[in-house]
Amino acid sequence: MDKIGHLHTTYFQGVLCYKGARWTGLSKKKSILTGLVCGTLFQSTIEVMDGFSSKWGFSIPDMAFNVAGISSFALQQHFWDDQRITIKVSSIPVSYPSDPIVSENSLSVSSQKKRAENLFGTNYFERFLKDYNAQTYWASVNVHSFLPQGNKWPAWLNIAVGFGAENMYGGFDNQWTENSNLYNLSQNIYPRYSQFYIGFDVDLPKLNPKNPLLKTICSVVNIFKIPSPAIEINTNGNIIFHILR
Q1: Which stretches of 39-102 are assigned E, i.e. beta strand?
Q2: What angle do CA 215, 221, 224 make, to 5 degrees?
Q3: pTM passes above 0.85
Q4: What digits encode the pLDDT tens for the residues 186-220?
Q5: Partner of 22 at 20 to 30 A CA spacing, among 29, 113, 202, 235?
């Protein structure tokens, strides 16, 4: 999830910087270059800072996904002069249970809710950025742009393919230390698993709003997926229908 988050962030930074450059009057070629440089610079700065951190360290996979994200923007803009496949994110708040979890030495008690608050924060903004159990990343495909000219498919209606995860309470496993007490969530009871989605989305700029302010808002907000019905297939072997995802 973290790696796809890097891809999404670099992608939308490139897109927004490109649109800003076009707005100033720069040519398409120079605007793409502006998006490439700015998106790469913003994320590479973070990676370099992480490289000097004893807690994180420099991550080659993170940089690889940064490159994938900025390349996705640049290649589409160069060859199609459009973003036919938009990388988006959505976040549906998760209600974590307060059921007691006993430490390995049986001397202390915690809960999934407490662990989630320590990891992801307590307000919606923090949770939106950090909570991998709530996040889904999407490749939103503008079907109309791939069909022959004159097709009847609505230009604003996309098909979105998403990826998410569940029961993530740590970077690599569900084991953590709290006040020197070790906690461990059983994989049998709380399995970490992946989720794959397919659903509908709205390509907001394709609504062609006439108001300049509304047009700008649609361009910026288009980095988020519009909640809509979706089907989930997960690695637990379940198929689930969601009214909104």
Answers
A1: 85-91, 100-102
A2: 145
A3: yes
A4: 899 899 999 999 999 999 999 999 999 999 999 99
A5: 202
Structural domain boundaries enclosing 44: 1-82
Q: pLDDT (tens digit, 9 = 90+) per residue, 93-132?
A: 899 999 999 999 999 999 999 999 999 999 989 999 899 9
Q: Which two tokens stand for residue 219?
A: 């361009």
- Let me know whether 203 and 113 are in one domain: yes
Q: b vs e for 100-127, b when ≥16 Cβ sit within 10 Å of the residue's Cβ? A: ebebeeeeeebebebbbeebbeeeeeeb
Do 89 and 179 share a domain, yes or no? yes
Give the three-state DSSP class for 23: helix
- Asked if 17 and 43 sit in the same domain, the reply is yes
- How many whole angstroms separate alpha carbon 152 and alpha carbon 14? 31
* Residue 166 zone, left/alpha/beta (φ > 0; ψ -120 to 50; rest): beta
- Residue ending a domain, choose from 40, 58, 82: 82
The residue out of 82, 107, 140 marking a domain boundary is: 82
CB count within 10 Å of CB 54 equals 5
Cα separation, 53 vs 70, in Å, equals 25
Q: Give the number of other CB atoms < 10 A from CB of residue 62.
A: 21
Q: Are residues 107 and 47 in the same domain?
A: no
Q: Which residue has the tokens 């698993």?
A: 193
User: Which amino acid does the sequence have at 80?
Assistant: W
- The amino acid at 3: K
Determine the straight-line distance between the first and last CA of the chain, rounded to whole angstroms.
Answer: 17
